[in-house]
């Protein structure tokens, strides 16, 4: 015996879509599939590997091994690393471990948040429930941003536990609450959130799951090398300093500039330029994704 | 190093893909039979004053794809309180039309409204209209219950409503199982459950009988009839003609994107071959033919059998009695929907 009566609906007072409910629904969508925790496990493993690798490299920086080719230079570098600024820089490096692949993971998460709707044909249910498609994309943006922040939090907790122990073991000390370290950790959060939004916009623009995942990885890993080579070749002809700074137009380079206080590389543009370019990419991709999503038929 | 890590990431993703099973082909499927879901009862009837809010009006609806006119100047009205069958051969434009009604596909021209309002402009659309569009419309790795809960959350419905509709379609036992393990019939039922979440006044279903066993088809028919009896508007597309004959009060038949026929099921069945024909078996055929008179047309049907048209069975029986002819069989054959449908739609495909 089944009934069409609904005590639950009778009890419900105010039904209807609100921005907050929509964001919670999008978070629930991510939460109820295995993708996010698979990504999180992979990311945690990579963070641990990055921490270990950074730890070894800073150890050799602080304590040059006998038998290195240029002993004098190594000792000079070790002295440099032991200054307060040097130790702070080591702390920053340790506290932001896992960033390189972390932002790749959150970008891919952002991509899949949109593309899985089409790969699994859930877009039909989604847009029947909420026909205002731009609202759906903005809710997805917020949800992807939340998961970007979650990934950052996991990495920061791991790094925050390991880094003091590591510094102690290396007989150097610095305050992790100092502005240099805190600033880098916050910029790291910015990078995680912006890359999640970047991926989301990319996914909305390129609806094919494989297509946008490949495009995302290519932009992140390949874009770096390609623009460096291109502008280096240009520099051979035009010997102007700005040419060497121009690779910042690639998102991966812009992101690196954004999170590096001072100049990220010789002739590199200032930090704010990287931030502007990254925010610009994320906003432009999301805007284009919204336009495309509104116009395309859901079949 | 970068390349190595990228390979690792890609490898991980490939594994993830496998696990999430894009097509769910290798998953173990355990069907949950309909046992628990009997004939639905209850449900609040639609108040008389609100019946008009359930009327679907399609006017001059056209969808032009690059080189094909999928839907061509289609106009019809679907009345509340009735089950309306939407018929057409494959590729006739049924799904495109339903998707335009539900605001998923943008019409090239024309309008589709529900109670005078475009779907996209409805306040709380899923509380007004429920749509069942494709049997595979859920994430392979998400459980059926979570699929419904996500919709509840987005529409601001209580999450407990998901459990109610699961019970209604007999999927409570499978509610916490991933969608990839659902049989086609279970997927259809989950689709119906999702459509009923908002207790809508209008239901639009695209081939809901696909993948259902005979018991499931009967359950679906009972459900739709019960809902229509309560004043709800039911628009259901199908290619299963015998099923539509049993289910639909009204029919809309399209072919090659154009309207081929519309009206009540009875009138459409009647219009095609008035009176039908009568199968007669008798040992004294010549005597009977002579007694029937000029109106009757006799066509041989087999050994000792003929089809007679032009007069009805009563007239044949009376004539046989007058002539003293023994009748071994006298059967009126109503034209079936399939024949009518083929008559209305054949040749239309050539237009495209």
Short synopsis of the structure:
The complex is a heterodimer of chains A (299) and B (352). Chain A is mainly alpha-helical and 299 residues long.
Write up this protein.
- The complex is a heterodimer of chains A (299) and B (352).
- Chain A starts with a strand and ends with a helix.
- Chain A is mainly alpha-helical.
- Chain A has one domain.
- The longest helix of chain A is centred in the middle third of the chain and has 37 residues.
- Chain A has 13 helices and one strand.
- In chain A, helix 6 runs parallel beside helix 9 and helix 6 crosses helix 10.
- By secondary structure, chain B is of the alpha/beta class.
- Chain B is 35% helix and 23% strand.
- Chain B is built from twelve helices and 14 strands.
- Strand 1 of chain A pairs parallel with strand 1 of chain B.
Content of β-strand of chain A: under 5%
Main β-sheet description of chain B: 6 strands, mixed
Number of strands of chain A: 1
How far is the N terminus from the C terminus of chain B? 57 Å
Share of residues in strands of chain B: 15-25%
Approximate helicity band of chain A:
over 70%
Give the structural class of chain B: alpha/beta
- What is the radius of gyration of chain B computed over CA atoms, rounded to a whole number of angstroms? 26 Å
**Count of separate DSSP helical elements of chain A:** 13
Q: What's the helix-strand series of chain B? A: HEEEEHEHEHHHEHEHEEHEHEEHEH
> N- to C-terminal separation of chain A?
36 Å
Average of per-residue pLDDT values of chain A: 91
Number of helices of chain B: 12
User: Hey, which two chains have the biggest interface?
Assistant: A-B, 54 and 72 residues
The low-pLDDT segments of chain A are: none
Structural class of chain A: mainly alpha
Shape of chain B: elongated
Biggest beta sheet summary of chain A: none
